[in-house]
Amino acid sequence: MLALLAVGAPPHAAGEEPAEAFRSLDQEVQALKKEVLDLNRELFVLEEELLFPANTQVAVFVSMDVGAFFALDSVTLMIDDKEVANYLYTEREAQALLKGGVHRLYIGNLKAGEHELVAFFTGQGPNLRDYRRGATVRLEKGVGAKYVELKISDRAVRAQPEFIIKEWE
Amino acid sequence: MTTRAARTGALRVRRAVACAAGVFAWCAAFTGGAACAREQPGTVAMVGTPQAVRDLHWGEVLFYFYQGEYLESLTRLGAAQTFGRLSNHPLEAELLKGGLYLSLGQHEEAGRIFRALLDQNVPLDVRNRAWFYLAKVWYQRDYLEQAASALSSIHGALPGELEPERRLLEAQVLMYLGRYDEAIRALHRWQPPSGRHDEWSAYARFNIGAALVRQQRMDEAAQLLDEVGRLAASSEEMAALRDKANLALGFAWLKADRPEQAKAVLQRVRLQGPMSNKALLGAGWADAALGRYERALAPWLELHGRGLLDAAVQESYLAIPYAYAQLDANAQAIEHYLRAVQAFAAETERIDQSIAAIRAGRLLDAILANDTADQAGWYWQLRELPDAPETRYLYHLLATHEFQEGLKNYRDLRLMQRNLEAWSLSVAAFEDMVDMRQRAYAARLPAMQATLDGVDLDALEERKVALEARVAAIERDGDIAGLATARELEQWHKVERIAGVLAQADPSDPLVADMQDKVRLLRGTLLWEFNAGYKARLWRARKELRELDVAYKEARRAQVLVERARQEYPAQTARFAAHVAQLQPRIAELGQRVAAAAEAHDRYLAAIAVRELEAQKERLAAYSLQARFALASIYDRASAAGAVP
Description:
The complex is a heterodimer. By secondary structure, chain A is of the alpha+beta class. Chain A has helices spanning 20-51, 91-98; strands spanning 57-64, 71-79, 82-88, 103-109, 113-124, 130-141, 146-155, 160-168. In chain A, strand 5 and strand 6 (130-141) form a beta hairpin. Mean pLDDT of chain A is 83; it is low at 1-18. Chain B is an all-alpha fold. Chain B has 24 helices and no strands. Chains A and B meet through helix 1, strand 1 and helix 2 of A and helix 1, helix 2, helix 3, helix 4 and helix 6 of B.
């Protein structure tokens, strides 16, 4: 009857040599995955080159710094009085921003010359109050791609959030 | 048991924690990052240590990485590298890329990247992490000596959660190499600074303890497993590990014929946890080994009411009548043996239905029916098995490394198929877009050509040069009238004309003399005005010439750009067209190969499942046979005694 004990053996006693068939299948999947990953990158690059050529490209990014005085809900972006993006952030995305991630809110095309960019940030400000603030910048779009960072940071002295628009070349 | 076979069991535990903590450890290695740097703006950021985001596109890669979207993160990382947008984070980007490949199960690619990093002159911190991840790659590929060597190349502590993970890895690698004493020493060297880190050490202690049991080194095994078995568990995960340790130790004591100790340990297992069935069974056997059959019946009868899918419950169907027989309660023994035979037969029939369902090709879709996550990943694990005929008997199978890996591959292949389908639609749109561009260009070309033809920049340049020469001459000659306005010049010429006419007239005529005086006055006034405004006018003329020059050069530049664009645009569009045209067949061909691989996995996993179910059937058949033998034996004894119970 003690043979029965084998059934109740320790949870780690089981295990067999993985079949050669699995190794071969696994290798095939590895190779396929690599091809799909490479193709993804290639298509992503092509898509950007096709849709947003470097000479007209404008991309707007959102970043957060610390975030003790502001919990971000959404950002609305207007370029030359036209709403081009309205993004509602999930809790997971907001956390990713707080860790140092940067979200590309908008990518589009603009002609060379001067443009006005307005961003509205909504969320919860100090003392859990609803908070809405705007920030404006006049952009000079040249020949190359233009990157704009909408940066939310804490102004510790005033215990208030601060919204900065920074241009990158 | 081979090293590899032994590993599969422990991997189950290791992977379980990888799910919960692996991703966390990853994030800690990269994220802590930005936040720390911001808190300490004065410190010099070293590559590979916490540092602020200095390229927006690097931040974008991290945005998806922190959300666990590894495929998206890797795609954007590759694209950003292609565009040369990560110039401030070159090493960090490579390190993350290797890690992402590892997370997606791409060991070879990950290994290549980490090795390449070690060939470079990189800071110690990056080297340490590259060695660590390389050790992980080698461990997962079964190159244990190399993994041990890589781990020994790390100098100092790794950041965040990577340090306890490294200690666990080190202990496990040494354990699979059979170097148990070193593995235990490695664990002892590791002093957890906080409660969370202790969890890592608990997994390592459990794995090594279980390995020592297999080596028959009971005293050392008991010490490690007992430590884990007495943990003050702060989470369900830790409570489950504690149960596993107590169960493993309990059965080890039973095998070592020390039932008293076995029972004491088995009683620590929670009554409702996933290990409770086996613990109840073991507790019964501990009492039975001590001849206390009545006591043994209590846990076994408790098991009797539980689901027959569980092997421990199945065994209790035989253990109960065995105990009754030992207590000479033959009537109850016979009743329970008969019930066991019926139950085993019914169960076998249900297993046959499951086998038929699996053979009909419904296994993997049933397993993944509730899987809504859309992320590929090495750390993915199926958490709940759906209750369907195809899957009801596969709890044990699902826990095996082999099946989990196959299932993960199958799931990734299905995700890849969806990914390719989505790109296929996009590529069709790309084709339309390229076509539209070509048409729009052809339509615009004549008007553009006409505009270009209508502009004679050379003639403009000649006029500009002439103007510059004129102003230079005026300045050189001090020709103050040269900068007069058109109206002033008209007046000047008129006065000059009148002066000429008066010069021909009789100067003695008082009227002529009077007019000559007036003309002199007018000339003097005009000259005075020219002279007074000369400097300001010369400055303005020079300024206007400079502006003209700038405008002219801009026009020249624009002309060159337009001309270049006119020449390059068709070629560029043709390149796009050619690129897009070769994508659709590539996607289709890759899609077919992915589908074929998914089907091969489906067949392969179905074969494993059927093999598992056949083994369960065999076990039930063996139990049934034992029950029948036992019944026959009781009947024999009864008839020999002259009375049928």
